[in-house]
Design brief:
Layout lengths: L9 H36 L3 H29 L2 H19 L5 H16 L2 H11 L2 H32 L2 H9 L1 H12 L20 H9 L2 H32 L3 H31 L5 H21 L4 H7 L1 H7 L3 H12 L4 H35 L3 H33 L4
């Protein structure tokens, strides 16, 4: 197995970044699979939109955030690579088991178990990446890693849609879940544990700060409070749209899961990956002149997303709607790399995993937890008056309110960000 000094070699750093990105692809492939399959699951199990929103949103998110914080603390004190490998094995195995459920409670329990595994994924990966790449390249590296979201969505939509049409939704979960168990072994035996502070050239001679200490440091920084809420609301828009857009296209435009999965894979997947990468790349370059560049990129992206979603949801036909959706899919993903890099700048090198976990606690609780649920609940409320159009108007209402609210928090974060970074971290 490689040892930490190998991180001095760019080829090994890039290999590890590639492996971690592949893990993140599996994270979202397993998660997004349920989204493209929720209509056939709804029909077989007799579910409501609110139940689907709870299943893909709040129930998953609550488990994710509850387990995310202690698993991040474990990663700070133990071997981050091993925490990641075990977590990957758990969520992949539970994804495969989802194919055997026969009721809503069983499905809810299986997805909750997937959430427990996924909670141990990103914080240790973020921490490793920040330790092996210097600050001037960190947002770019984290954005490359974050493209796993979009590539996972791409293959989740593409494979899930077609496997469902050919074999069925149960077989899709089994076929897609099992390869993650092999990848877990690759992580365990080929990724070395880097020394904390490696990229800064720092010696980590102090004890790892506790969770409450790290939380206190972050909470005392106004820029982090607003950054966390801003990313939470931007993910509220993102999860609300991506978790319900397939159902909207099926209901409003009569698309099948195979054709729809292909379209969404090629538009949301590819455009989102490019947006994720360019968001970090732009933030690194703007941040060299002014640290607030890490907040400017997310602010501009969400301001453009809101009007573009109106064009998508009000388009007269399916293919025009999906074509227009390339633009908001590209822009909506630009915030993630800059937000993680900004958080690591605020927290310091000894608590990066916990810093990421705190950010993702807010991001997932607000975004993943309440975004899909809010869209589903509003759709159910509007259904008596608007029928099949209720989901269209629910998406418009939720996207507009959350998007504008998000912008306010980013602007407030920018006011004190530079000062808060200078105050130091945990």
């Amino acid at each position: 197995m490689a040892q930490a000094p190998d991180y001095a070699r760019p080829s090994y750093r890039n290999y590890v970044l590639g492996v971690l990105t592949l893990v993140y692809i599996f994270n979202f492939l397993d998660r997004q699979l349920l989204v493209i399959l929720q209509e056939p699951i709804k029909q077989e199990l007799g579910l409501s939109d609110t139940q689907l929103g709870l299943l893909t949103g709040l129930a998953f998110a609550m488990v994710y955030v509850i387990f995310g914080l202690p698993l991040a603390q474990l990663a700070e004190r133990w071997v981050r690579r091993s925490v990641l490998a075990i977590s990957l094995a758990v969520w992949s195995g539970m994804t495969a088991l989802t194919g055997f459920v026969s009721s809503y409670p069983q499905l809810l329990a299986a997805r909750a178990a997937v959430g427990i595994g996924e909670a141990g994924g990103s914080p240790p990966a973020h921490s490793i990446i920040s330790d092996i790449f210097p600050a001037s390249r960190r947002a770019t590296a984290l954005s490359i890693y974050s493209t796993g979201v979009n590539v996972g969505i791409l293959f989740g939509f593409l494979l899930g849609g077609w496997i469902n049409e050919i074999l069925g939704w149960r077989e899709a979960f089994i076929i897609i879940g099992l390869p993650g168990l092999v990848l877990a072994l690759v992580v365990r035996f080929s990724v070395a544990e880097p020394r904390k502070g490696f990229s800064e050239g720092a010696q980590d001679d102090c004890a790892t700060p506790g969770f409450l200490e790290t939380l206190g440091v972050l909470w005392r920084k106004p820029s982090f409070r607003h950054l966390a809420m801003g990313t939470g609301l931007q993910s509220f828009v993102g999860y609300g749209v991506i978790n319900w857009l397939p159902s909207f296209m099926i209901r409003a435009h009569g698309m099948g899961t195979g054709e729809l999965g292909t379209w969404l894979a090629l538009t949301v997947g590819i455009a989102g990956a490019l947006g994720t990468f360019l968001g970090g790349w732009m933030a690194d370059r703007l941040g060299r002149k002014d640290r607030r560049g890490y907040l400017l990129v997310p602010t501009l992206s969400i301001l453009l997303v809101v009007p573009l979603m109106f064009a998508v949801l009000l388009a007269p036909n399916a293919h025009l709607a999906l074509g227009i959706n390339i633009a908001p899919a590209f822009l909506q993903t630009m915030y993630l790399g800059p937000a993680i890099a900004a958080t690591h700048a605020l927290v310091g090198f000894r608590a990066k995993a916990v810093g990421s976990a705190v950010l993702f606690f807010v991001l997932n609780l607000v975004g993943l937890g309440f975004g899909p649920l809010a869209v589903g609940a509003v759709s159910d409320l509007l259904q008596p008056a608007y029928g099949l159009q209720s989901l269209r108007w629910s998406l418009l209402i939720v996207t507009t309110i959350a998007g504008m609210w998000c912008t306010v928090h980013y602007l407030l974060a920018a006011r004190t960000f530079d000062h808060d970074v200078e105050q130091g971290g945990a």
